[in-house]
Design brief:
about 200 residues; single chain; Alpha-Beta Plaits; alpha+beta; 6 helices
Length: about 200
């Protein structure tokens, strides 16, 4: 079975991890920039809660993932601020029950500048940190055209690891408070997490 590995680490550390992944048989290795959002009202008020991050993603075999996570754990302990986790690329809902998962990866895609609101709602419902990535949306109907260029709406992608027992509460809170039931408001979904390294325990 193939697994999707994500490693979230401080800016500037991505290349080393990508080389490690390449040496251990990973494929489709990619890296993009993001921000870590910490939990703390004082930091939020002072607007210093954003920490520059790199998110490395790769696909690898289940067996290789176990070996690689052991190797990554050594590096993560050195950086002290990195997280690595894996999800199966193919699974059924009944498989999640059999896995008895402790964590799930929660993804929220909303309009630019709305991501931090989603993080705040999640933290109010028991989540801890999160990673925020800026991107662009693409739809069949482009809303505006300038100088013959398509103008696509900018998006925020929020990635959070949350306890399985908190996931539904957090999803419902974000869905309702951000009115994601309305058209083009956003998307929220979860992926099962098989293994995690470097995560501060959630209470």
């Amino acid at each position: 079975m193939k697994e999707l590995l994500r490693v979230i680490l401080p800016r500037g550390k991505g290349s080393d991890f990508m080389n490690l992944l390449d040496k251990n048989g990973a494929s489709s290795i990619t890296c993009f920039y993001g921000y870590g959002l910490s939990k703390g009202h004082i930091e939020n008020m002072l607007h210093i809660d954003k920490i520059k991050k790199e998110i490395v993603m790769a696909i690898l075999d289940e067996k290789d993932a176990r070996v690689l996570l052991r190797e990554l754990n050594k590096e993560i302990q050195k950086t002290n601020t990195a997280i690595a986790f894996t999800s199966p690329l193919e699974y059924r809902i009944e498989d999640e029950v059999k896995m008895n998962l402790e964590y799930v990866a929660l993804y929220v895609i909303v309009d630019r500048h709305e991501g931090q609101k989603a993080v705040q709602i999640a933290q109010e419902n028991g989540a801890r940190g999160a990673s925020l990535v800026h991107g662009r949306g693409s739809a069949k109907e482009v809303k505006s055209i300038l100088f013959n260029m398509n103008i696509e709406e900018e998006k925020d992608l929020v990635i959070m690891l949350v306890k399985t027992e908190l996931a539904e509460q957090i999803k419902n809170a974000i869905y309702e408070q951000m009115q994601l039931k309305d058209e083009n408001k956003g998307i929220i979904y979860t992926l099962p997490v098989i293994e995690v390294r470097g995560l501060i325990e959630q209470q």
